[in-house]
Amino acid sequence: MSKLLLAALCALSLAPSAGATELTPLERRWLHAALPVLAYSRSLDLPIDVVVQPQAGPNDVAMAMGFAGGRCKLVLSLRGNPDAERVLDGVPSGQQAELIEAMAAHEVGHCWRHAQGDWHALPVGFVESGEERAHDPSLLAASKALREMRREEGYADLVALAWTQRRYPADYARIYAWLDKVRAAQPAPGSEHRSGHRSGHDTRAWVGLARDGNRFGAAGKPFEDVLPLWREGLLRD
Predict the structure, then answer these.
(1) pTM of the model
(2) Which of 42, 64, 69, 213 could covalently link to 172 via disulfide, CB atoms 3.0 to 4.6 Å apart?
(3) Cα 41 from chain centroid (whole Å)
(4) Burial letters 161-175, b for 16+ CB under 10 A, else e
């Protein structure tokens, strides 16, 4: 591991699970790509630990955000995960680091919402409207959970794109096209819950608004610059 990577991860609290004390080349590649996002998070005092799993579970994605003990946990599940880099299929190796960085920005967007106490909360002035009915109360609860998840995923996707616009304006169209393609595939058959509602990762209501990266706010603060588009997407979702 490079001294720069080691120092940065120690500052961010690298917490490998048992058996994962030595990072693999793949883990180093993903963490190195994520470093700019993690460094920015540290500058904001976001409580993030990096957790490296010694063995991925059957449904684990390569990078995810969890929460425990008042802290955010950026979890890498790359070992023993044959689908870890499927999201990068078809992307030349020299263009993958920016996509991993965008994924890291997405996950840190979740941490930001959680740290601000806004997790699953609508912005001021927004209220739930309409009424859902079902004979089984569990279906209503599942529908609400999916709706809340989709809103958080929409916010995080916008953070990823705002980060990209800030860091790689010349490559924005390429990275946007990749994310747009990934999200367009989310509602594929079988991705809907038995209640009939869309996938919690169907964020097209938000991603579609950000085709032009200049639509983001200009403060250079991605967590705040996305808020106008996130609110607009809430009205369309």
Answers:
(1) 0.86
(2) 213
(3) 14
(4) bbbbbbbeeeebeeb
- Give one DSSP letter per residue of 49-87, joined into a string: EEEE-SS--TT--SEEEEEETTEEEEEE--TT-TTTTGG
Q: How far apart are CA 42 and CA 127, in angstroms?
A: 33
- Which residue shows structure tokens 């070992």? 79
**Cα separation of 195 and 185, whole Å?**
20
Q: In the numeric block, which tokens belong to residue 109?
A: 């967007």
Angle of helix 3-11 relative to helix 25-43, nearest 10 degrees, comes to 50
- The model's pLDDT over 49-92, given as tens digits with 9 standing for 90+, comes to 998 998 999 989 999 999 999 999 999 999 999 999 999 999 99
Query: What are the structure tokens assigned to 38, written together?
Result: 């993690």
Q: Are 111 and 41 in contact (CB under 8 A)?
A: yes
The DSSP-derived string for 20-58 is --S--HHHHHHHHHHHHHHHHHHHTT--EEEEE-SS--T
Report the alpha-carbon distance of residue 219 to residue 166 in Å, rounded: 10
Output the CA angle 186-191-194, nearest 5 degrees: 150
Distance between CA atoms of residues 99 and 180, nearest Å: 12
Q: Which amino acid is at 101?
A: E
Q: What mean pLDDT comes out for the span 124-151?
A: 73
